[in-house]
Amino acid sequence: MSPTATSFEMVSVRAPQQPTQGTTINVTSASFDDGGSIDMDFVFTGCGGRNQSPQLSWGGAPSGTKSFVVTCFDPDAPTGAGFWHWLVFDIPSSVTKLDAGVGKDRVPAGAKGASNDYGYPTYGGPCPPKGDGAHRYIFTVYALDIDSLPHATEKTHGAPLIFQMRGHVLASGSITGTFGH
Asked: Which burial class, exposed, middle or buried, applies to 66 when counting CB atoms under 10 A from its CB (0-12, 13-18, 19+)?
């Protein structure tokens, strides 16, 4: 049987390993509401935005948390594997918020950026194909039981970064924004 457009729309992807604790991290943003639209300030420049990372705050990480990882992922990108927009790792456990714009050209003090699917170790905002409808941008915070991911660098991409977290995720939580044009 030859593939059809419909068969390509339904791709099953294995989720990352579940957290070891039952705790869910509470993630909020002053930049957008959960399930709400993402403002042009936080949209990629190629789509007319300012490409500033949104403000994020989190709380409720379990004891034993030694570092955090923050990601932004678009599961609706027409790539067959989604699209990684932001990957920040080795965030010290004392940090519980990222100010708006912090990911534009740098990462928070003590943290490191991994390579998004635009090819940069910084934030890359939403920019779905015109006419593709609204996409979901899932900002996830992971609490890890280690201070640092020893093999991650700014050249590490999303899937290998998530794999390196395997066995170290204590808890996670997310907030989702939408954007389409």
From this structure: middle
